[in-house]
Backbone:
């Protein structure tokens, strides 16, 4: 059975897994289409609050990934649902973020505002490339005066074809510094709510989460009690995986989404064997041989997660660890 064949729902992160900003990742559309053809249900859970669920579904469909709005869960939608539960209808909410977040606030029965003088009951903060000092200043005044501060997510970066760019977490840090406090509530990943909602919507009994970030996607899946797959097409790389604490360790790792259709045991981590795919761990724990880099990574996860030093005993292993930016033991 393939890796995906053991699950009845696959929940995908988007940025870094399916696309980078607005550019589809090669092979992603084909992989998701194959899952659908095999009868596996799919859902999408994103921390990016700059698009509404129908807009995300339209973007995906335009990339050749058919998606319905009810298959998309966004941190913006989740944040507005929380605010609607906590505030009276029509309450003013100061929006730090994109127009999509303002629309979600309005759809939740609340009133989006943009100034401290509007006496906001809450501040909701989500990613937008247009967030600037003026709106952050209004938000700081509102929170200091007692407004509830809700962040859609705290991702420090978001992936792009040019490399990682500042994410909503970097913008949240501006207010955190100015106010010397944390948000009252962070709704998106790594909180497990988006994943649990996706599973409950289709009554999934065995969901799999696929993500590119250990600190959001994988940690959120672990918190939700779900198996997870880390794909190496986005933010988290081999060095971060080798250093991952238990709450950020995925069930599987593959280079990209094509790994969904390979043997599950060929992607599972940690590996208890000492030799796989042309690589082996010598008696002193050093990596030796040559082969698929993902096999080497899986092999090293087993020893690194046991607290053993990572070393190299061959030229190929040394080159690989250097490329990953992993410090080699003497």
Residues:
């Amino acid at each position: 059975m393939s890796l995906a064949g053991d699950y009845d729902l696959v929940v995908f992160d988007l940025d870094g897994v399916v696309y980078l900003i607005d550019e589809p990742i090669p092979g992603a559309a084909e992989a998701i289409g194959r899952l659908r053809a095999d009868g596996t249900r799919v859902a999408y859970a994103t921390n990016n609050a700059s698009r509404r669920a129908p807009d995300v579904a339209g973007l995906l469909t335009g990339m050749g990934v058919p998606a319905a709005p009810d298959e998309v869960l966004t941190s913006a939608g989740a944040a507005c649902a929380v605010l609607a539960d906590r505030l009276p209808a029509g309450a003013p909410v100061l929006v730090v973020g994109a127009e999509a977040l303002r629309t979600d606030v309005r759809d939740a029965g609340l009133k989006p505002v943009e100034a401290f003088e509007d006496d906001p009951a809450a501040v909701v903060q989500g990613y937008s490339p247009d967030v600037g000092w003026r709106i952050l200043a209004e938000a700081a005044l509102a929170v200091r005066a007692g407004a509830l501060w809700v962040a859609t997510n705290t991702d420090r970066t978001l992936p792009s074809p040019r490399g990682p760019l500042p994410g909503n977490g970097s913008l949240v840090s501006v207010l955190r510094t100015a106010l010397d406090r944390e948000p009252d509530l962070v709704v998106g990943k790594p909180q497990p709510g988006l994943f649990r909602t996706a599973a409950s919507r289709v009554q999934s009994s065995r969901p799999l989460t696929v993500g590119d970030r250990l600190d959001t996607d994988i940690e959120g899946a672990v918190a939700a009690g779900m198996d997870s797959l880390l794909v190496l097409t986005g933010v988290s790389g081999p060095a971060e995986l080798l250093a991952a604490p238990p709450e950020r360790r995925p069930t599987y790792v593959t280079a990209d989404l094509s790994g969904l259709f390979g043997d599950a045991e060929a992607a599972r981590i940690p590996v208890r064997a000492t030799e796989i795919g042309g690589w082996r761990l010598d008696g002193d724990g050093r990596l030796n041989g040559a082969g698929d880099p993902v096999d080497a990574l899986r092999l090293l996860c087993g020893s690194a997660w046991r607290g053993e030093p990572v070393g190299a005993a061959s030229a190929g292993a040394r080159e690989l660890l250097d490329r990953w930016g992993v410090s080699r033991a003497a």
The mean pLDDT is 95. The chain has eleven helices and 19 strands.
